[in-house]
């Protein structure tokens, strides 16, 4: 289908993700796929985010004229509230206590800032995220259709919506593989009940989906989550089409931003064929406590396999001092032939694509889960917060990973359990089916990516043409 309106005008889309890297990244991947199919994309975020996103994108894709011509980066300016200067208009490095303030500032950008962008750019469609229910309302003022794109799993979305829609009843979630453990319930309730600017997050989520015109886009695949996609549709009263967009994993070999990346890949190359290696990372926005660091360190050492472990510390701390004080005494010396411990960042996709990496000790952020599936790497699941527990249950249900069980009510990590699960998934015969399933999933994902995106574009073009005819 041609991505044009009846008057032969190329369809233009304004995309507005939430101000977190974990949302901006899949939105940008979707933008690239839309641009490749000849839609024009206005990619909108704060200067605090675009200052890093735009140069990297342009340097990576400067030879791809489709991307550089069809994707424009547009700044949206937020008001500077007390304690929230413009360089903090991003979740990257944002102190947790300022998150409600950032949401409030984002809300305040609706008018005149966002409205002004729509008036100046005149897009045919707006694609917005889960936290700004004002975006579709402002778009409707200009007779522009708005569609929600959620970069979370269908299992997470259906679980949340089930809880919200059935808050006054005891009706159980219909899929027993997806549930919360005792130590996770409090955090999850707090997540739904947290509020900013007088609006609870669960209300934002519900309003954003309810206001999406005709369709809701989900970053998933029917091969992974077909029954959960269908249940999301049921929870919406079957009045919206739930359209999976696929995994949106960037396969370009441009995952190297730091000078020491070559050192990491050379280390991996030396390990290839000698012993299996696991990659260990808990995402960009979770900082392990000292007790958690010690238990993870113990588990990696007990596993007996090689490892690359990325540890992150909160902004303002001294990473070298923190690492020395958190790791067991003499640890780095003991594991120098087995492991590589890095502070801050590592080229995750490049590492997962390496033939020597046989497992991923992951917090189960949705992007990490999808990247692991895309490259056929089994998951050792260690969820920490947010949607991660639900994603970890899904990983086990699909069969591409095994979750590390926690201690009792408090959910404390035990190094011994981590070591056992790593050995099972990576080395032992009992984990052979998990390893096979991960490879099967990789092949399935490779076969179906373009088909899903073609259906997405078909739905969006149909929606834009319908709105264009009604307005003429």
UniProtKB/TrEMBL annotation:
One of its GO terms (molecular function) is UDP-glycosyltransferase activity. InterPro entries: Glyco_transf_N, UDP_glucos_trans, UDP_glycos_trans_CS. PROSITE patterns: UDPGT. CDD domains: GT1_Gtf-like. It is an enzyme of class 2 (transferase). SUPFAM superfamilies: UDP-Glycosyltransferase/glycogen phosphorylase (SSF53756). Residues 11-246 form the Glycosyltransferase N-terminal domain. Keywords: Glycosyltransferase, Transferase. Its EC number is 2.4.1.-. One of its GO terms (biological process) is carbohydrate derivative biosynthetic process. Belongs to the UDP-glycosyltransferase family. This is Glycosyltransferase. It comes from Trema orientale (Charcoal tree).
């Amino acid at each position: 289908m041609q991505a044009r309106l009846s008057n032969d005008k190329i369809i233009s889309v304004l995309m507005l993700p939430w101000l977190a890297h974990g949302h901006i990244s899949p939105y940008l991947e979707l933008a690239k796929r839309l641009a490749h199919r000849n839609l024009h994309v206005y990619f909108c975020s704060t200067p605090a985010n675009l200052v890093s996103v735009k140069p990297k994108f342009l340097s990576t894709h400067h030879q791809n004229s489709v991307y550089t011509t069809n994707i424009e980066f547009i700044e949206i300016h937020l008001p500077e509230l007390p304690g929230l200067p413009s360089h903090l208009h991003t979740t990257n490095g944002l102190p947790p206590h300022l998150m409600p303030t950032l949401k409030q500032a984002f809300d305040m950008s609706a008018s005149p800032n966002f409205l002004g962008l729509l008036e100046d750019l005149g897009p045919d469609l707006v694609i917005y995220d889960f936290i700004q229910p004002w975006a579709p309302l402002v778009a409707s003022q200009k007779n522009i259709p708005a569609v929600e794109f959620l970069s979370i799993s269908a299992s997470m979305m259906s679980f949340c919506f089930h809880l919200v829609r059935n808050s006054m009843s005891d009706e159980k979630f219909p899929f027993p593989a997806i549930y919360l453990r005792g130590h996770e319930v409090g955090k999850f309730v707090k997540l739904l009940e947290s509020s900013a600017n007088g609006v609870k997050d669960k209300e934002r989520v519900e309003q954003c989906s309810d206001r999406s015109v005709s369709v809701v886009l989900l970053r998933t695949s029917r091969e992974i989550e077909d029954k959960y996609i269908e249940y999301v549709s049921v929870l919406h009263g079957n009045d919206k089409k739930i359209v999976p967009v696929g995994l949106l994993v960037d396969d370009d070999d441009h995952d190297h931003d730091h000078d020491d990346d070559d050192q990491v890949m050379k280390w991996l190359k030396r390990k290839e064929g000698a012993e299996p290696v696991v990659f260990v990372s808990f995402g960009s926005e979770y900082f392990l406590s000292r007790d958690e660091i010690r238990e993870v360190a113990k588990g990696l050492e007990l596993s007996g396999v090689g490892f690359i472990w990325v540890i992150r510390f909160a902004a303002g701390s001294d990473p070298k001092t923190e690492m020395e004080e958190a790791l067991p005494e003499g640890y780095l010396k003991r594991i120098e032939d087995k492991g590589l411990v890095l502070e801050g960042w590592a080229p995750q996709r490049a590492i997962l694509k390496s033939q020597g990496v046989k497992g991923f000790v992951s917090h189960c952020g949705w992007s990490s889960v999808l990247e692991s599936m895309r490259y056929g790497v089994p998951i050792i699941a260690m969820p920490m917060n947010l949607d991660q527990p639900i994603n970890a249950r899904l990983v086990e249900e699909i069969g591409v990973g095994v979750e590390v069980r926690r201690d009792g009510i408090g959910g404390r990590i035990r190094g011994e359990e981590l070591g056992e699960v790593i050995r099972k998934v990576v080395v032992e015969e009992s984990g052979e089916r998990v390893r096979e399933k991960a490879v099967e999933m990789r092949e399935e994902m490779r076969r179906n990516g373009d088909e899903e995106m073609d259906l997405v574009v078909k739905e969006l073009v149909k929606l834009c043409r319908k709105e264009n005819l009604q307005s003429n």
